[in-house]
Give the backbone structure.
Amino acid sequence: MEGAFYEPDAGAYLATELTRGPWDPGAQHAGPPAALVGREIEHLDGAEEFQVGRVTFEIMRSIPIGPVSVEAKVVRPGRSVQLVEASLSNDDGELMRARAWRIRKAKVDLPPDALGAASAPPGPDQGSTGDFFPTGQEVGYHTAMEWRSVSGGFIEPGPATVWMRIRCALVAGEEPTPLQRTLVAADVGNGISAVLDWQRFLFINVDLTVHLERMPEGEWVCVDAVTLPQPNGVGTAESVLSDERGRIGRAAQTLLVAERG
């Protein structure tokens, strides 16, 4: 891996240009900060005994490329279930807020017919490298990620199925964890499955909710997404998340839909 989304910075983190998103050259894509918040949740005591079953990120405002700090705490302790709150901020205030349920992992002898289908979409080796939105920027989230499109893509309108993996570290000097790999990728649903011309319309998500039935195996995460805008300026994007073995969970986004000024 070359480079990182974030460099450690005196107890905080400095976002690099690899975090740059498609809407504003000075703002981060929501995937890397969501993963950074997820990393902080993973550092809470007892994390190895629990799995994040659901995490919701509220994007309070645009996240500038620059220094950020992260904190997390358990607000509802429990032996089997815990509620966690986390926050990403800079000197101007809170940028992203998260709440997550952690569920204790335990072996359960389930009947085979209760597990459902575990089939995965065609693998990344069967996908093609598609084009990202022409942002006019040489470096950003689009260069930090490797893409393999099975169907659809960023510049093709309609539903899409795209495999992704990180080319860089989340935090310099660290190997990304399965949760971090998932959260970096989960925020792309509205981008890969856009049904509106991005040059004429905005379709920006104000939140991201990720449900995880299990953690992914391997480096690749697949996002199978559909975007559903409405003429009242509100929309949603829904994604099924998979690894090469099959489904791992799902993601949902609430969208602000508007014509560009």
The radius of gyration is 18 Å. The chain has one domain: 4-105+127-259. The domain at 4-105+127-259 is CATH 2.40.160.210 (Porin). Helices lie at 31-42, 141-144, 178-186, 189-192.
